[in-house]
Design goal:
single chain; about 325 residues; alpha+beta; Potassium Channel Kv1.1, Chain A; 3 domains; seven-stranded antiparallel β-sheet; 13 helices; 15 strands; about 40% helix; about 25% strand
């Protein structure tokens, strides 16, 4: 198969009846492709990407024009109506042609566009546009950053957590947190000893904290340590992590956690979480389902918070 960056041509010799042929692989964009042709009662032409981790994780979304060009100038070229933004896997494009060619002919495929959908959702972007290059560059950089942590590449700071220690990079921590930047910029013990003590975090929560900072987000790990991550985000002034924890804590309020969430919202000044907890307990009447726990909560809760709860109760009544 002869190719240019967007064009592929496969030259076919005469096909006898009941014949099947498959092209050699050819590369258009980041994928390897195949063409097949089968002659039975009709002529069937098939185009598909090679099965690989790339085509499974990021199947191409293709727009193309495919033609059957006979070698004889007296024969008419057959042109498919065209494919626009079609995701292609193994059997997603088959062209059944009623006319049976005799003699040599060329299968001509001109790719008008190839797109990839982001792994996290959103609009697909063309591999031939600057946006794809930008996203691919950002993805590669983030992957490299994650490897710096997981493989301890040129680390220069030790993090002591409750239950273990790990290593990291001053520059990365300083870029993500003004608190860390201040630690490493002044003659504090963290700078002199190349050590940061985070004794108020478990080792597992600290690992989750560093993974987030380095872009190695793990959903299960994040959910398991949301409260600890919220505390760290507040302590080290990482606003995006604090907001991510805030959003997540809003999503699964129930009778088992609502009082803890309410206290958390008050402590870290999270107004939407506080409002959601209040509505859940008061407007939806769940306060009656946790009467004993609520009575115990009133013995230790901040007076200002208690006053807000009763104001909410009076407003509903």
């Amino acid at each position: 198969v002869e190719t240019t960056p967007r064009l592929a041509q496969w030259r076919i010799d005469t096909l006898s009846s009941c014949t099947y042929r498959k092209s050699d692989p050819f590369k258009i964009g980041p994928w390897k492709w195949y063409l097949t042709v089968e002659r039975n009662k009709q002529l069937f032409v098939k185009l598909f990407p090679e099965v690989s981790s790339l085509s499974r994780e990021q199947p191409p979304i293709a727009s193309f024009i495919i033609k059957l060009v006979p070698s004889s100038p007296n024969r008419k070229t057959l042109i498919h109506p065209g494919i626009c933004d079609k995701q292609l896997k193994n059997d997603d494009f088959v062209w059944a042609v009623d006319t049976l060619f005799t003699g040599r002919f060329i299968i001509d495929v001109e790719f008008l566009d190839l797109k990839i959908a982001p792994p996290t959702g959103g609009e697909p972007s063309s591999i031939w546009s600057g946006s794809y290059i930008e996203k691919n560059s950002a993805f590669t950089a983030l992957t490299s950053l994650s490897r710096m942590l997981s493989e301890a590449i040129h680390t220069d700071i030790t993090i002591n957590a409750n239950g273990g220690c790990t290593v990291a990079h001053r520059a990365i921590l300083a870029a993500r947190s003004p608190v860390f930047r201040s630690m490493f910029s002044h003659n504090l013990k963290e700078k002199e000893l190349s050590t940061v003590d985070i004794s108020d975090m478990s080792f597992e929560a600290c690992q989750a904290f560093l993974n987030y900072i380095y872009g190695n987000f793990k959903a299960d790990e994040f959910l398991a340590h949301r409260l600890a991550l919220l505390h760290a985000a507040d302590k080290y002034d990482i606003s995006d992590l604090k907001e991510a924890c805030h959003e997540s804590l809003l999503e699964d309020i129930d009778t088992k956690n609502v009082l803890v969430r309410l206290q958390t919202a008050h402590l870290y000044q999270l107004p939407r979480l506080k409002s959601s907890c209040m509505r859940y307990m008061v407007n939806f009447g769940k306060i009656y389902d946790i009467r004993d726990d609520f009575n115990a909560f009133l013995q230790t809760a901040d007076r200002e918070l208690i006053a807000e709860i009763f104001q909410e109760v009076l407003a509903v009544w």
